[in-house]
Amino acid sequence: MAEISFEHIKKNFGSELVIKDLNIEIKDGEFFTFVGPSGCGKSTILNMIAGLEEITDGAIKFDGIAVNELSPKERDVAMVFQSYALYPHMTVYGNLAFPLKIKKIKKEVIESEVKRISFLLGLDELLKRKPRELSGGQRQRVALGRAIIRKPRVFLMDEPLSNLDARLRVEMRAELKRLHNELKITTIYVTHDQAEAMSMSDRIAVLSDGLIQQCGTPREIYLKPENTMVAGFVGSPPMNFIPVVLKNRNPVEVDCNGLIISPLTDSPPENKGVILGIRPEDITVSSHKAEGGSEAVVSIIESAGPFNWIDIKWGDTLIKGVSDIDEALIPEDKCFITFSHDKVLLFDRETQRRI
Amino acid sequence: MNKSLFYITTFIVVSLSLLPFLWFVNTSLKTPIEITAIPPVLVPSGTLNSYQSAIEDYNLLHFLKNSLIVAGITTIITILVSIITGYTLARLRIKYKGLIMGSLLVVSMFPQISIAGPVWKILQDLGWLNSYQGLIIPYVTLTLPLGVWILASFFKDLPPDLEASARIDGCSHFQTLFKIIVPLAAPGVFTAAILVFIYAWNEFFFALLIMTQQDFQTLPVGIALFQGQYTMPWGEIAAASTVSTVPLVLMVFIFQKRIISGLTSGAMKG
Questions:
Q1: A206 vs A6: CA distance, rounded Å
Q2: Which domains are present in chain A?
């Protein structure tokens, strides 16, 4: 188990700076996720922690001791890959036992450890099979088992669930969370799937263009996104952004399609150009006019099971909201939207930062 | 239509390449009178006299032993060096990879006759003429480009995650190479090994040049020297030639089973 800190980490590939000054402390036993669009440098971070990529500048420390110069072996980390990376010429038993064999651990100990892990992950029946005879979910579990068998200081997971089908993915999320609660090993997880990040992590760092856009608990990131990138990336479907005109600075008032809204802000806005952000799940669409409702036109209705997602034309803007499943809405027909003003966020149009 | 064309072409090609081989197997089983008979005798009497004579009078087993030593050791050294070099060139971050691969290829382009003189001089200065190493070292040099190219391309095709995984599981570069990479590239390793062995087994020119004493001569040279000033022992030559192809055929049959593609399926997604 270990506490991991990044101090001014930079990484170049040739002349391209892929990680620009990364500073983060990951606590002992924490489930920490790097999330971001593809190409944002998140896998590179993982490879630097593992020792598979050299660090261009700065220091990565495990429990306060820099590990920059240590080989992957000396860092004592374990990693689960997106591709599973099972050794195809070995059986499940061979794969699970491999990290221990390399450590030259006694055969009896290896045997009992493999037994324990295969029981924990439900692999007992499959020990004699080769990876090619396993299903995706089983391979994934073997990869996990191979990582946890030697009780590493840190777990690294590089999009481990992205090759599984949707249902299995949800199951494995819970399984990973359970394993983490049981083993309490510092886990660093990388994914492009914000839902995965939100559901499992103690803390999340949203990464884009080689920079941390925001680091915090899932709740903080969802409720108080630092900028439009984070606000748009986290949550599905993404947040609605509407360019609006600032009416009054103190108290803050904006004019949005004729509706005067006074959102809660941390500080008065500096510029007149602001963007209003509101999540689709906070907008209620209805066929009857309610108090404070604003008129709009229904564009597309998507069923989500317990409720419907509704694309609406509100003035000049296209936004998304939700409606009750029994709501009588017809495309191209009139509707009314309501939302609570304290759910509204304001962003500076120039800096894209939340106000 | 297409299928029959395929079978006819296959038949012609296979017959053309097999016919000389079958002819000398046939000849090796004839008596001297049958060999020189006109018109030729198609069905031999099946005598093994030529084999007995090749072994007893012409030292066939001695040449066979020399060939096995030279070709065997050449193959082992070349494959070991090729594995390490091929892996380095395929995976590790080193400068001028393309240049190194290119130079390797260029080395193998020189006609043998053009390097024969310098090689002979070097071996003479080392005192290695008429010694096993005197033939093995030039063979290794000549077969390395082939081995490195075959193995480097095999290694390149293996999923890099496997190596990363092995490194994280605690392997050194060498352990990764020999515990993970080589077993997975087994088809490539065997292919390279067979080609190198065949080259060293059949090579005639350097063997003739370097091995002037019968003690160290290999099969091709040995067989060529069966011929006396006034004699041409066709039966013994045919018998020796038949014997000399047996190890090659055996090797291909044994390793064919190991040359299975798709060994890596199942390791990765999909």
A1: 15
A2: 4-232 (3.40.50.300), 237-348 (2.40.50.140)
Distance, in Å, from the CA atom of B214 to the CA atom of B216, rounded to the nearest integer, reads 6
Touching check for A133 and chain B: CB below 8 Å? yes
Probe site for chain A from B163, B167, B169, B171 (most A CB atoms < 10 A): B169
Q: Kindly state whether A66 is in contact with chain B, defined as any CB-CB distance less than 8 angstroms.
A: no
Average pLDDT over residues A126-143: 91
DSSP A49-80: HHTSS--SEEEEEETTEE-TT--HHHHTEEEE
CB of A168 less than 8 A from some CB of B: no
Q: Which chain B residues contact residue A54 at CB under 8 A? A: none
Q: Provide the residue count of chain B.
A: 270
Chain B CB contacts of A150 under 8 Å are 170
How far apart CA A308 and CA A285 sit, in angstroms, is 9
What are the distances in angstroms from CA A37 to CA A190, A191, A192, A194, B79? 11, 9, 5, 9, 44
Residues with Cβ within 8 Å of B158's Cβ and at least 6 positions away in sequence, in order, are B181, B184, B185, B264
Write out pLDDT tens, residues B218-254. 999 999 988 887 888 999 999 999 999 888 888 777 7
> Residue A20: which H helix or E strand, with range?
strand A16-26
- Chain B residues with beta carbon closer than 8 angstroms to that of A44: none
Q: Which residues of B touch A (CB under 8 A)?
A: 159, 161-162, 164-172, 175, 180, 183-184, 263-270
| SS percent in chain B: helix, strand, coil, step 5 | 75, 0, 25
Going by pLDDT thresholds of 50, 70 and 90, the confidence category of residue B257 is low
What number is the average pLDDT over the span B139-166? 91
**In chain B, % of residues over pLDDT 70:** 94
How many whole angstroms separate alpha carbon A194 and alpha carbon A213? 14
Domains of chain B: 18-256 (1.10.3720.10)
Q: Which of B168, B171, B180 sits opposite A77 (nearest CB)?
A: B168
- Flag whether pLDDT at B269 surpasses 80: no
Q: A132–B266: do the CB atoms touch at under 8 Å?
A: yes
* pTM across the whole model: 0.81
Give dist(CA A221, CA B99) in Å, integer.
51
Q: What is the arrangement of strands in the sheet containing A259-261, beginning at the earlier edge strand? A: A259-261, A253-256, A240-248, A273-278, A345-348
